[in-house]
Automatic annotation (TrEMBL):
This is Nicotinate phosphoribosyltransferase. It is an enzyme of class 6 (ligase). Residues 171-264 form the Nicotinate/nicotinamide phosphoribosyltransferase domain. Residues 6-127 form the Nicotinate phosphoribosyltransferase N-terminal domain. Catalyzes the synthesis of beta-nicotinate D-ribonucleotide from nicotinate and 5-phospho-D-ribose 1-phosphate at the expense of ATP. GO terms for biological process: NAD+ biosynthetic process via the salvage pathway. It catalyses: 5-phospho-alpha-D-ribose 1-diphosphate + nicotinate + ATP + H2O = nicotinate beta-D-ribonucleotide + ADP + phosphate + diphosphate. Pathway: Cofactor biosynthesis; NAD(+) biosynthesis; nicotinate D-ribonucleotide from nicotinate: step 1/1. One of its GO terms (molecular function) is glycosyltransferase activity. Belongs to the NAPRTase family. Its EC number is 6.3.4.21. One of its GO terms (cellular component) is cytosol.
Length: 265
């Protein structure tokens, strides 16, 4: 389900390094919001809890992954890579429960640099477990249907990729948090490899696996967190001044819409 500590978006690692360097004692709290009509079950909650406690908590940065990051992500400092080598997800930071209305309540709380990697892996796990415990028409594992449906998805993805390529559209893959399953995500990546206008993927694991460029800089979380720590009025300015302090011109992308374009410009 989550196959590696690198099975995450690059910008979570870049933000984690900045938080560790500038705000090592800052605390954060996250809360899951379901924007759809889906309802959940006790079976779902129990499986999610198991995945958190047994699978995600066991993830570690391997020596091979450590070396790859050092060679392919030069903006990540040696100090941070050592930190990541020793990093472990802490299941106690995550509370999961089912409300009376069958809504899913997930809360994450702890030091910001410790909790920041949970978001993507939990969203990917929520999606995959939903399709294995609730909407079971296809869960990516059924011998009678999985292969043909994976092929069908692959054909559709290839068709879309070719249209983008034929029209000169450069694009990157950013699907980790919304993927139906790890298996399908892997199928998408394999299918897109021949498309010459594919510039890379946000998923560091798949970037390593398929020799692609890992894509990502900073997320809205960085500006939002800065606003809570330093103040809302000049949050955009302080957030990016701090970003430049850490990265010295690398990863020079500024998000303008955290609090609206008017507030930024």
């Amino acid at each position: 389900m989550i196959k590696s500590i690198l099975d995450n978006d690059l910008y979570k690692f870049t933000m984690q390094m900045a938080v560790l360097e500038l705000f090592p004692k800052a605390e954060a709290e996250y809360r899951f919001t379901n924007r759809g009509p889906q309802r959940f079950s006790r079976e779902f909650v129990e499986e999610l809890r198991r995945v958190i406690d047994e699978e995600i908590s066991a993830l570690v940065l391997t020596e091979d992954e450590y070396q790859w990051l050092g060679e392919n992500c030069s903006f990540l400092k040696p100090m941070y890579l050592e930190y990541l080598k020793n990093f472990r997800f802490k299941p106690g930071e995550v509370k999961v429960c089912l409300t009376e209305e069958k809504e899913l309540d997930i809360r994450i709380k702890g030091l910001w640099h410790s909790t920041i990697l949970w978001e993507i892996v939990l969203m990917a796990a929520v999606s995959e477990i939903y399709f294995t415990t609730i909407e079971k028409e296809w869960n990516g594992k059924s011998p009678s249907t999985s292969e043909s449906l994976l092929e069908a998805y692959g054909e559709k993805i290839l068709e879309i990729g070719k249209v983008l390529e034929e029209n000169g559209c450069l694009f990157a893959e950013f699907g980790t948090r919304r993927r139906r399953s790890f298996e399908l995500h892997d199928q998408v990546m394999k299918t897109l490899l021949p498309i010459k206008t594919l510039t890379g993927t946000s998923n560091v694991f798949f970037a390593k696996k398929y020799g692609l460029k890992p894509i990502g800089t900073v997320g809205h979380e960085w500006i939002m967190g800065t606003s809570a720590l330093i103040g809302l009025r000049y949050a955009n300015r302080f957030a990016f001044e701090n970003w430049v302090e850490v990265y010295k011109g690398d990863l020079g992308i500024a998000l303008t819409d955290t609090f609206g374009s008017e507030a930024f410009f």
